[in-house]
Structure formats: C-alpha cells, structure tokens
Amino acid sequence: MGLKQLEDIWSTVKLIPFAVVLYDxxxxxxxxxxxxxxxxxxxxxxxxxKADFKHLKxxxxxxxxxxxxxxxxxxxxxxxxxxxxLLQKQTKSLLLNAKLAxxxxxxxxxxxxxxxxxxxxxxxxDKIISKISTDLIDIQNDNIDTHIGFALKAIGxxxxxxxxxxxxxxxxxxxxRNTHEWVNQGIQAFKEQLQHVPxxxxxxxxxxxxxxxxxxxxxxxxxxxxATKEKQELEREGIQSVLCIGLRxxxxxxxxxxxDCVKQKREWTDLDLIRIKLVGExxxxxxxxxxxxxELQRIQQQLITANQKLxxxxxxxxxxxxxxxxxxxxxxxxxxxxxxxxEQPVSLIMCDIDFxxxxxxxxxxxxxxxxxxxVAAALKAQCRREGDLTARYGGEEFAVILPxxxxxxxxQFTRLIQQTIKAAGIKHNKSSVSEYLTxxxxxxxxxxxxxxxxQCFINKADQALYKAKETGRNKVCQFKPTH
Length: 483
Ligand SMILES: Nc1nc2c(ncn2[C@@H]2O[C@H](COP(=O)(O)OP(=O)(O)OP(=O)(O)O)[C@@H](O)[C@H]2O)c(=O)[nH]1
What we know:
Blueprint: H1 3-13, E1 19-24, E2 29-32, H2 34-40, E3 48-49, E4 57-59, E5 66-67, H3 69-79, E6 82-88, E7 93-102, E8 107-117, H4 125-137, H5 144-158, E9 163-169, E10 175-183, E11 197-198, H6 203-212, E12 214-217, H7 228-236, E13 241-249, E14 252-261, H8 270-315, H9 325-342, E15 346-353, H10 356-363, H11 365-382, E16 389-394, E17 397-403, H12 407-424, E18 439-446, H13 454-470, E19 476-478
Parallel strand pairs: 18-19
Antiparallel strand pairs: 1-2, 1-8, 2-3, 4-5, 4-6, 6-7, 7-8, 9-10, 9-14, 10-11, 12-13, 13-14, 15-17, 15-18, 16-17
Helix pairs in contact: 4-5, 4-8, 5-8, 10-11, 11-12
C-alpha cells in the first residue's frame, strides 16, 4: 500500500469521534488520533512505533491477562472484534470498549471508547471490592446493614444503575422480601412496598431464578408474553432494564441481588454480571459468617454460664451457701501471700457451735441443719470488707479470714460475732452455758512472711479454739505463742 493511500485513509478515520489507532502490520508502525494520544499518553508524532506504547498497561478486565498493543491487534482481532480493555495508568485506570477491524491486508484499525473512568477512588471497583470484603469478613450484627448499603451503592454506581437491592426468599420459598435497597438521587425507593411479594405473582421470574439463578432484561418493553406479570410490575416501578442474580446459601437459593435502570436502558455487559455476582457472593458469605459467629457466640455464652455455675458449685457449701472448705483453702493461701507482699497482718478465726451434738439430739437433725444455716448467715453478714471470707470448715465448725486485720480489730470482730449469734436467739435447751446457741471462738493474728503457710495459721487458730472449749465455751481465745 502506498504512502499516499495510507495518508488518505488516515485523514478520514482519524476524524471518527473516538480514540483511533491504526496499525500497519507490515511495517509495525502505528498512527493515533488526538483522542487516542490523550487517552494513551502518546507523543504527538505522525507515525508511532512499538516503543511509544511501551508505558501502557493493557489487560483484560475479566482474566486480568496483560497484553501489548501489538498483541491486541494480532491476537484479539482474531478472537473478538469487540472487547473490553482495562488501561492502567500511573494514577488511574480506564475501562475501554475496543472495536477492532481489518481495513485491508496490512492495515488494522481499533477504536476505543471510554466506558468507565475508574480513577475516581471511591468507585475504583477493585478497591471497593477489597473494602467490601474486608468490611464484611469480620462483620458484627449491628453494622451489617451499613456495609450492605455501601456494597449496594457501589455496585449500583459501577453498573450505572439507578437502584440496587437485596431480596430474601421466605423459608418455604412462597414469598420474597426486599431487605436492603440503594437508590440513586431522584429515584423512587420501593423497599417498603416490596415486603411480602408472593413468589407465584412473578412466575416467569421465579422460574428463571430457580433454574438459571439469573434474570437479565436489557429492555423491559421487549419481555415475552409469558412474562406479562413481570412486565407489568417492572413498568409500574418505571424500570427499563433489570439484572438479578440468585444468592445461594449452602447450595440453596435464599434470595437475589439486583440492579434496575430507570432513567435509561442498559445493555448489561458480562462485566456487570460478574461484578454483581461477586458482590452478591460476598454478601451471602457475610451472612453465612454472621450466622456461624452468632451460633458460636451462643455456644460460648452457654459454656461460660455453665462454667460459672460449676465454679460456684465447687466452691460453695450446699447446705449453708457460704464458701466451702475448698474455697477457704485457696483463699487463705492467697491472702497470706498477698498480705506478706503488702506487709499487712492476717487474722484467722475458727468458730465451733457449743454442744451441737446435744442440739441435734434435742431438736432433730433437720433443725440442726437450720441452725447451721442461721449461724453461717450471721457470720457472713459480718464480713463486709473486700477480701473477708466466711467458710464452713466442716461439720459445725466455721472459719473467717480477715485480711489486713490486726489482733485488736480481730478481737473486736469476734465480739461482734458473739453478739450477732446471741441476737439470732436460737434456743438451745441442752447447752450448759446458755439457753441460746453459742459459739466458742479461737483466733490467730500475725504478720505473714514468705515462709508463712495456711496450715500454720489453721493450727494456731485451732489451738485457740480448743482453749476456748476447754476453758468453758461461749468465749473467745486468742493464740499467743508461749515463750
Ligand atoms: N444437723 C447437722 N449436724 C451436724 C452437721 N455436721 C456435723 N453435725 C453434728 O455436729 C455435732 C458435733 O458434735 P461434737 O463434735 O461432739 O461437738 P459438740 O457436741 O458441738 O460439743 P462441743 O464442740 O465440744 O461444744 C455432731 O453430732 C455432728 O453430727 C450437719 O451438717 N448438720
């Protein structure tokens, strides 16, 4: 082909109102009109070569496979004369609709139309998708609606729709409900009206959803006769084009995600389909995760409650509901250590009901039990400071741990115990010390050090209690070391 002929062709085709690139297969040279120079950042040269296109990153938006301008002409022309090309520049990316044609044996032509300016950060689809998936991965029940709202807005905007939404089918599949909706400015929302839509009121739609999980209508006006009900409903909502994709949960169809075009019709592209499907799958997965998470939380809570109950059970005396011996042993050990570190005294009181055998014999074992409950409650009521602990040590013997309490304060405390028991007025006609039930009390107060043991405290308080019993009962004795 002569140069003159080429220039003649170029002088015409460069005027096409799109970006135009001409490729001379034989010479491996290119021509680009001013729009193509602008879109591809090409130098304003009469003839270009491969090197002038080197900075371009071209890829297929579906497969992400990269190719050069040469490959676009040579390979893609054979496969497809009409394709989408993703052009990535340094700061932005553009989605182009490319149309390729062979003008003659040596001359190929490509026109490019920008169909999407992806540079707007908010709607860069990749960014949106990664944001939606990250947001929805660790979703909590209280913010799922916000994230779904964002995802619907994103997909609606990216697919140039006026409305996007989620629908859920009822358990029995007999009705559907619009759960989330995004509408573009000036577009009427229909969510409130679409809460209990019987599935059989849209049989054509329901059948397609069931079988293909897809309802794609580029022009509502051209819906077939068998879709009359759907056509009526879509026209009532002012919809010109609609695309709905089924959502599945454990292989079961649970709902669908969809986009409507109201202001103008849309030829839904494969890319629209891929994108809506992707967002739908992310949302369906989020619901799945949320369900798992809620179930897990419920089980965890049950375990925590069961554990708390168990803990309470193993540390509580079943008759008196105060701390049992096990709990006492743990508490005494830790209080001794804590007071040793804080250089504070610890007091241990041991109390034993006087003539309790006689009490049981006289009033019966059951009333004996009731007396034990009353004594336990009276002792517990005196323990008002944090760390104080009353425990049933065994049988009719009780112990009180008073951390950070010296011997004077402990003595005062034992007097209070005596008064409280007296005030309880539990009749005991078989006691030789009083007509009421009384306690013998022994205590030991000391400043613990790192070598102090619980056993040492127990032994000494016990010795004091023994002394109280030996020397008349209904009295308080303190352990004093003999020098
Ligand atoms: N009702 C009842 N009695 C109990 C319980 N645990 C121990 N006892 C009784 O408490 C009595 C304790 O008797 P002893 O150890 O002889 O002492 P005491 O009769 O209180 O005499 P002193 O301690 O010497 O004043 C026994 O008869 C036990 O059966 C209990 O849970 N319920």
